[in-house]
Amino acid sequence: MKNVVIVGAGPAGITAARTLLDHGVTPVLVDESLRGGGQIYRRQPANFQRSPKQLYGFEAGKATALHRTMDELATLIDYRPETLVWNAENGRLDMLNNGHAESLEYAQIIVATGATDRILPVPGWTLPGVYSLGAAQIALKYQGCAIGERVAFCGSGPLLYLVAYQYAKAGAKVVAVLDSAPFSAQCRALPALLGQPATLAKGLYYRAWLTAHGIPVHQGATLSHIDGEQRVTGIHWEQQRIACDAVAFAHALRSETQLADLLGCEFAWSALNRAWLPQRDSAGRSSVAGVYLAGDGAGIMGADAAQMAGERAALALLEDTGVAIDQRRGPALEQQLAGIQRFRHGLETAFPFPENWAAKAPDELILCRCEEVSVGEVRAVVDEGHWEVNRVKAHCRVGMGRCQGRMCGLAAAEIIAERSGRSIENVGRLRGQAPIKPLPFGVEVQP
User: Which of 188, 228, 307, 411 could be disulfide-bonded to 232 (CB atoms 3.0-4.6 Å)?
Assistant: First the structure.
């Protein structure tokens, strides 16, 4: 019997599973993590005793409710934690669980793969002690560890202030916050951001709390390079330097779209996300029959929107398979999502992408860590006349390593666009390749 499968047990995936089960459909829920919750509501190990308030702050109530739902679902559905989906082909998912390869046939699938940090490399970013903002948050939430004794947070986007606040609140020494977005941009964004007053208030609180506790916050300050030989010793920006032994940085988030690509979904350029995203209608239907998209994996909108989109995609799946649903619920969810989308436009105004990054990146800067490809090597290929990103990849191996371009692909496209004089959307996108994430040696993969 073919299954209804959900990939990803974050806010979107858990809510989709709950919705399906409430309508008599028992899904298979597959997730890489040991415990469901996603990144924003990541759960600590069962033997840890920190309270939800310590872990999630203002979001403790939402996190606790989602975890309670996941705990209830775990015994009622086919829940498969610690399971990596690394390929999709011919109506089957190839998966890896505790070193064992397995294959799962599906009839319908909801892709709720979430997001990761958008990394724009700077000199020194490969030093020990440099983390993405998301990785720094994982260390704190999941293991109660700080990434260093004196930590600097850099980049832009709402996550920058949230993680800096979480570290300082937990007792870590935060030496500075560098936000590349100017204060004037955030002032211009206020009218749009007022559409979600509670969310705006939390962001303002994090910013004010940091200043009130003596943590320097520099706006319009772009990280230029990171010092160190064996590990991080400091950061530089605009003729200034501060000593630190760890750095967390990122410029907002990027959707995890590789699985949707392998499933055959059509993509379209999203100026809002500055990325190619799988196309979906307002209900979450992709261009491929039986494939539905929900949450940040189809466009960054946050945890609240992910839960709504997870429910909406599940309702669309149910309707398409002939299951009776409340016909009023779908339009109501779509209206709520449209309101959050307007707020999302405000965030892009408040935290604009640093479009001058590519022009300022030095030739010797390592762009692709997996294959040790420098910015200069990419520029040299462009100078030879190659400007489509997959052609550039074939000539210098950028994006051909273990991460399959998940970390370097967007940055490489920025370099190619700047060097070739083309707009970013016109250089194309890296095609998805299996395995989506690295597989260990010794795994027997069935043909």
Answer: 228
